[in-house]
Amino acid sequence: MTPPVHNLIGVSRGQLRHVLASVGVPEKQLGLRTRQIFHWIYIRGATRFSQMTSIGKDLQTTLEKNFSLARPEIVTEQISVDGTRKWLLRFPQDDGQSVEVETVYIPESDRGTLCVSSQVGCSFHCSFCYTGTQKMMKNLTPGEILAQVLVARDSLADYQIEGSADSGSLASPSGLPTTGRRVSNVVMMGMGEPLLNFENVKQALLIALDDDGLGFSRRRVTLSTSGVVPGIHRTGDELKVALAISLHAVRDDLRDILVPVNRKYPIAQLLDACRQYPGLSNARRITFEYVMLAGINDSMDDARELVRLLKEIPSKINLIPFNPWPGTSYKCSDASTIAAFARHLHQNGYSSPIRATRGQDIMAACGQLKSETPVIPLGK
Q: Strands 67-68 and 111-115: what pairing?
């Protein structure tokens, strides 16, 4: 029986073996064909099966009839004055509607970081975060997560496709990393809470880490959580990627407001899970994200308490100047306050970089992601 047409982006190795068997690929060829197709989808960026020149034309035709490699629609692509890029992507759904998410690319001379979304909207409603003002709509599938990476690589000409009429046709954008991959790092820090969509995020990241998939090293993949404690150990044990914690406060009463999941998993419980993170060491530190809010969490008492809380946890502390968005009452701490806060952390042995604000002119900075029309009928 011929399987229904569906997109092979995000399909696991085991699932791909099964669908190949279902269209008549002999058992003894399944391992080879799975590796080849993975390589073409993720390493070479194939968008059509006819580009897969290492497999026979009969199999190319069979795959073309039964499956798809379609990308989501790019609704908008915005480029900041600092080179940051933001894509609004539209994904069709089985119910005839579509959903939209935002994905952000941040280029630097030595790396290119892609900020990937895991959900449409967010259920946590962190009070300083623009995404939190959007209703939670759905978990993204593994294919919808990985498609964000493929769209970025397409747009940035981050691979070339053998045998394709399109090969070499994309201009090389300026302001990109000078060596290596243009998308060299992936951070699960876009819309949504990755640990509330763990199974789909896990499948996507395992493909991203697969040498025949996207081929990222674990040290270049980071998962950020607001503090879903049960998923933290699983992240270290099953994915072994870098971990980032959206902390933002040193007292439970304040964190309950800023990051409401704290009411379920308070600071002491969260930090205990961090201390037990598999593989934690000075060479594999946890990153704690701390947004700087004027008069809210930026006092020297806060800095001292942060040092006390993180004692004996190998960690790095990213200080994030608050990025404003329409309707917020929060303001960013002034530069001197942030500098003094960072200086205290540094004097106590913590790496405490102040994150440069990127893409603010296109609402692509940290905490500013939100899709304007989360669910719309197809064809509209």
A: unpaired
